[in-house]
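From the thread on structure requests for the teaching lab: each student submitted one protein with a one-line request. Submission from student K.M.:

"Model Chain-length determining protein from Segatella bryantii, tokens only."
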Amino acid sequence: MNEDNNRNINPYEEEEESSIDFGAIFAALKKQIRLYLIIVPIFCVLGVAYALNQVNYYTSTVMLAPEASTGGASSMGGLASLAKRFGVSGRSSSSAQDVDAILPDLYPDLINSVDFKTKLFEVNVHHKDKNDNMPYYNYLLKYQKRGWIGELFGGPMDTIKVEPVNPFELTKKQDNIAKAIDKNVVCDVDSKTGVITITVTDQDAYIAACMADSVRGRLQRFITDYRTAKARRDLAYQTKLYKEAKRKYIDVRQKYIAYSDANQDIVLESVRSKLEDLENDMQLKYNSLTSLDQAVEAAQAKVQEFTPAFTTLQSATVPVKKAGPSRAKICAVFLLVGILLATGIALYKEDQIKPLLGLN
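Reply posted by the TA:
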């Protein structure tokens, strides 16, 4: 019986012996208070220095709502080619609703594509109240603040050199600028509502708003060009045929008028026959011209039908307050790291790591 009682009691005694002694841990930390007085102030200074080195940045946001498409099969074909180009796969369906279901998902891929980002190189920007128009590429290359550490220890800023942009093979400098644009320009699409949100971040509040509006406009034109590509080709072809038919009609009409005036008083059967032939030819050319004129109008209507409309829910505005950085949070993180480091070293010196982890 005594042995059984001892067996029942021993586990509790072992648990008590292995419990964490918070008094010993607190005493150990108090004994190493000098570590805190050394490490924590150092991390506070580092945190303040790092926080002051961060450059203020601003964000401007644009929100769009695209209309539902009614483009049918032609719209589907243009969308499929667009998706294929940017490596996005969509559902295969003949209904316009299915086409619209995948359209918003393409917008972030379009903005992240090299073709789209390199097109932003040429957007003209300028600081507020200054006539210093420059391409966005030059602005990112030359006029980005680097913080006081970068100014003291960083090398000189790159000189601006105009280089032809080839999206297939970017230079190292162009690739760096494209990566910077990739971070600065963000597009999100709400899968439920289809609302497109474009956010542009920049060190200059005015330029952030200008670029947000430019990206919105270019995205709309980019999508419109793809959605109406086939319809615009058809319109160009029908217009070409119409102009050619009109030229032929004018030529045959002038021949008819000239021949009729020259033989006005002649009643020969050959003259009548020739006039009838010219009149019939003129009538055929006129019928063809009328038919092509209707075809051109139909092609114009189709371009309009396939042109997507976007409702601007929120326009680009110049932000009043900075979006970051939060220097107070940066200092708090450095302070926390300093405290944790000092605590770890103190526990290690006082041999309190293993008891704390329950390894004894």
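TA comment: Strands lie at 58-66, 124-125, 134-135, 185-189, 196-202, 310-314. Residues 11-18, 70-80, 82-102 have pLDDT under 50 and may be disordered.
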